[in-house]
Amino acid sequence: MSSIGTGQWLRYWRNSLADAESSKGAITLKEFHRHLPVAAGTLGIGRLEEDSRELAALFKNEPKNVQLVQVVYRPTAYVLKHEHGKKYTGSSPEVITPVVCTLWVNRKGFFLPSSSSAIPRDLLSPQNDDKFTITSVKSLDHFLDEHTPYYYSEQEALSLFETGQATELWSRYCEITRSLFKALCNDSALLKERYKNEKKGYLLKCDVVNNSTRNVLKLYDWLNDREVSIPLAENYALANHNTYQPCIDSLSTMATRCGHSNSKFPLADAQRDALAQVLAMAEGDILAINGPPGTGKTTFVLSVVASMWVNAALKEQEPPLIIAASTNNQAVTNIIEAFGKDFEENDGPLSGHWLPEIKSYGGYFPASSLECEAAKNYQTASFYRTLEDPEYLEQAELVFLLKAKQVFDDASLNSVLKVKKRLHAELKACHRQFEHLQNAWHELERTKNRCNEEIGFTPEIVKENKRVEINALSHELELVSQDLAQWKKFRVDESIWLTLLNPVPLIARKRRLLRELFIGSYFSSTAQDIVNINDVVDPEVALSQWMENQRKSIKKSELELENWNVLLAEKTLAEELWRRIVLPLIPTTGYATNIDELDKVLDISLRFKLFQLAVHYWEARWLLDCREQENDLIMQIQSGKEKMGLKLVRPRWLRRMKLTPCIVSTLHSLPGHMTFKAFEEEGKFRDDYLINEIYP
Prior knowledge:
Layout: H1 4-22, E1 26-27, H2 29-32, E2 36-38, H3 42-45, H4 53-58, E3 68-74, E4 78-80, E5 82-83, E6 86-87, E7 95-96, E8 101-106, E9 111-113, E10 124-125, E11 135-136, H5 137-146, H6 154-163, H7 166-184, H8 189-194, E12 195-197, E13 201-205, H9 211-225, H10 231-238, H11 269-279, H12 297-314, E14 323-326, H13 329-341, E15 362-364, H14 371-374, H15 381-387, H16 390-408, H17 416-454, H18 459-493, H19 496-500, H20 505-522, H21 525-533, H22 539-582, H23 595-628, H24 630-639, H25 646-657, E16 662-666, H26 670-673, E17 675-681, E18 684-689
Parallel strand pairs: 10-11, 14-16, 15-16
Antiparallel strand pairs: 1-7, 2-13, 3-8, 3-13, 4-7, 4-12, 5-6, 8-9, 17-18
Helix pairs in contact: 1-9, 1-10, 11-12, 12-23, 16-23, 17-22, 17-23, 18-22
């Protein structure tokens, strides 16, 4: 691993898992039988014989430079008794090991503690349910307060073994361990009543764990040995993103969220926001989705899968490798059942699979020991192998082509390649509707905003007020125009002698009084105000200038009203375009009055149709892949087993993801399925993992 910090965390998690698995106090008989039995006195002696088979077993397959191994030592064990031919049942474990010691063992067989001796937590009360316990956490804490534990790191142990101090230190540790058992375990009535003391000690190398955990440990080791960076592991281990990131605007990703699982129930707002975030994530990003039961987490997962599947189909890429995994078997079962029943299939022509015998949109990869039973209800790895038989392929191709001809009413679709191209064209055409919808909505919003900015939210009232204003201005202009005409007539009728004798003060005064009397008697109030304001200007000039300005005001108002009418006409056209595009996608025209409401409707209409088209597109791609890899599939059928080289494993995974968009597994079982054989030397191969290998 390129990051030192990441490697440290991986080793810590790996060792914690190994310790947790090997240090339980209540174990099954199967787990118990993996231990190496040793004499009861081994605890007191503090060593194994140097030539003993037990010591040889502990160092088996270890490199010669390894001087210490870590083991779990159980000084005693109690096995459930039989009564009347039957064991106690209920909450009683099959085997109880009250005290567990984690030790270092060197190649000469000597012991040193690597942690303090303890009563495992699963045997201490309180517990969250009715489990078998032999004492309490409080009692153990009280004991540890009075007894100082002794244990050593690997380097300390190596040094102590070399200096010969191990025997003395072990004696002190052994004394504390015996005191712990005597003080807290020896008087347990339940142990004596229900269990038989085996009167032996038991050793287990820390890495000897159950098969499922072994897969995870091997994966941890593999991750830690990588020379290249794995972004997801580094981001998770180092928590690289320690600041809040801005949330993605879900409406801005409307076309990216292009798949949905049913035609009845759209995503809730929180699901839609989370989906937008997931589809915008970069490599190695992690998103936590929280919610109690029934809040739609599984539905959200289905939409993630559907959208990623459709997006890959639109781009004509290989399908994404999507795996839903959990440590909880019930959670895994819930998810695989959801893939079987929550992807809607109805009476529509595009509904369901066109290939026969496919009943679910998920594959279930359990532990190999459980596959036979799981195959009765789910599509396991054996299901995919069954479909890859040449006989099935011949029948499936005929059924597929017949269905395509019926759905598209096109007899020319006589090859899988033609159907694939037709389906992709349909996908692209459907997806373009997102662009048309967004363009139509943006145009509608643009025209609405311009109308609101320039006219306001009550355009008809504003327009009517403007018309009233224009009428008033025109009426004033008409009155002043009449006043100006009368004034001109008055001037024409005025005596020429008064004009000639105007320099005479008495005549000038009389002339001014006659004009004032005429203006006051015949001019409108508007004309009188114009003349009074401009008393130093000839009335004819003042009225003419005012009329020119009034005509400009009327023209401006008329242009403004005309522009408003144009804006409202554009808005009407945008609304009509919006309705025309939206109408085929919604039950009623009034259901989606805005883009947010429409986005919800698109889940159960356009996005659901896109997913249905993608299902058949990937079926076509699967058929084409099978034809291309026909020779390998025939050899697989003849040999009865799958070859595990990367050149065959990679296309096999990609081929099968075309049939089911998601694989479901437990985190313990998954690593065992994600492997291939890597060549090391002639006749020798090692297991490797498909992480960073599925895609070229």
